[in-house]
Amino acid sequence: MDLSEIEQLIEAGIEDSEATVSQPRSPDQNHEDAHFAAVVVSPAFADKSLVQQHQMVYDALGDHMTTDIHAMEIKTYTPEEYEQHASSE
């Protein structure tokens, strides 16, 4: 799966979201394109637990999580949390 395709799926599935997807590890022979990392920012995450936020991302990816994506590292933020995170780096 293409990185932009994953970003589009997440953004279509989570209201007002902005997703940035990367490949955080070197490809391996068995799953060379299947390991991804996503940073997702959305006001829809407000008042949701971390587990609920990650479930929203998994739901947006649907069946791709069992067919095209072997592993997904997820970081979720509300816009306010992301602004604080970005300014602390």
TrEMBL record:
It comes from the Archaea. Residues 12-32 are annotated as: Disordered. Gene3D superfamilies: BolA-like (3.30.300.90). Pfam families: BolA (PF01722). This is Transcriptional regulator, BolA protein family. Belongs to the BolA/IbaG family.
